[in-house]
Amino acid sequence: MKDLILVTGSTGFIATQTVLRLLDEGYRVRGTVRSQKKGDALRKLVASYRDDAPLEIAVADLLEDEGWSAAMKGCDGLFHMASPFPGGDIEDEDKLLAPAVEGTERVLKAAKAAGIPRAVLTSSVAAVAYGVPTRPNGVFTEKDWSDPQGDGISTYAKSKVLAERKAWDVVADGGPALTTINPSLVLGPMIEDDHGTSIGMIRSLLSGEMDKIPAAAFGIVDVRDVVSAHIKAFEMDSAKGERFIVSDAFMTMEEVVADLRNAYPSLSEHFPTELEDGAIEHRVPSAKKASETLGIEFTPASHAIVATAQCLIDRKLVDAPVAR
Ligand code: NAP
């Protein structure tokens, strides 16, 4: 029987798919949830894919000590995926920073105390390329760090860079061998209707909710590749102590809209045509290291975009179009 992996925030978009893949690959999984009700829903979801899956549920909140020590007991590895990823404006910065940063410290310290040998943290390119000036070629690698006090940094990016820094600090003098996976915007197929913020962007476009095309650009990665990166990182000794950016193409929102328009010509009137004012910053995350070391062959970003859209349509999660 393979190792027992603790997956925090196991109800999340990336985490549910990680839980299922770990089970498929023969691992045993203990998933943390914020309430027993959410744990029951996760069990039901997993049961709809697999009979008799070796899945345990543990209840613990990133803001409380209670439950973490019991959750860690007997685990061989930790995938720390829980962290708030809100869409829209954030009024109270601390509501995001406390679970992200104190939560990461709490979880990593509990793993250390429990003697868990390996930990993989879901960080982000938000911890790599923001709050710092961009550069002529626009390319950022794992050697780069976002500046949490830097100009223009979002509260979310601040939460991710401070949380990742905290994780490295906790293990600096011992504890689990840590790897971070730093995804760009995660898209791709969904396995349940409840979806996170990244999928919400495609849903808004398909639903005709965007008046203008945002002046924005980002790397895109398929959720299946993000899951593979976590598992490969856990399994490979050479990944210990390393950060890995996972990302396929860097695309402007205009290009994302063009892909959707090509794939769904009948929905053409839902998509905005006018580009919002503003300069588009090129902060291109390089995933060369993940390709070379972890052997990830990235799903093309365009496939991830269309897979997201198709899931949203199949699951009837696209609202009636707004007439334009
Ligand atoms: P998600 O679907 O919103 O999942 C977030 C998870 O964190 C949920 O399970 C949520 O639990 C849990 N969580 C939030 N606050 C918590 C708290 N106080 N205590 C315990 N659990 C808490 O987001 P996701 O997109 O899968 O993101 C998962 C991880 O990937 C996050 O660390 C995120 O920063 C990172 N990431 C995401 C992307 C992306 O584009 N999606 C890109 C880069 C990095 P509930 O279900 O109870 O709310």
Automatic annotation (TrEMBL):
<dbReference type="InterPro" id="IPR036291">
    <property type="entry name" value="NAD(P)-bd_dom_sf"/>
</dbReference>
<comment type="similarity">
    <text>Belongs to the NAD(P)-dependent epimerase/dehydratase family. Dihydroflavonol-4-reductase subfamily.</text>
</comment>
<dbReference type="Pfam" id="PF01370">
    <property type="entry name" value="Epimerase"/>
</dbReference>
<keyword id="KW-0413">Isomerase</keyword>
<feature type="domain" description="NAD-dependent epimerase/dehydratase">
    <location>
        <begin position="5"/>
        <end position="244"/>
    </location>
</feature>
<dbReference type="GO" id="GO:0016616">
    <property type="term" value="F:oxidoreductase activity, acting on the CH-OH group of donors, NAD or NADP as acceptor"/>
</dbReference>
<dbReference type="InterPro" id="IPR001509">
    <property type="entry name" value="Epimerase_deHydtase"/>
</dbReference>
<dbReference type="GO" id="GO:0016853">
    <property type="term" value="F:isomerase activity"/>
</dbReference>
<protein>
    <submittedName>
        <fullName>3 beta-hydroxysteroid dehydrogenase/Delta 5--&gt;4-isomerase</fullName>
    </submittedName>
</protein>
<dbReference type="InterPro" id="IPR050425">
    <property type="entry name" value="NAD(P)_dehydrat-like"/>
</dbReference>
<keyword id="KW-0560">Oxidoreductase</keyword>
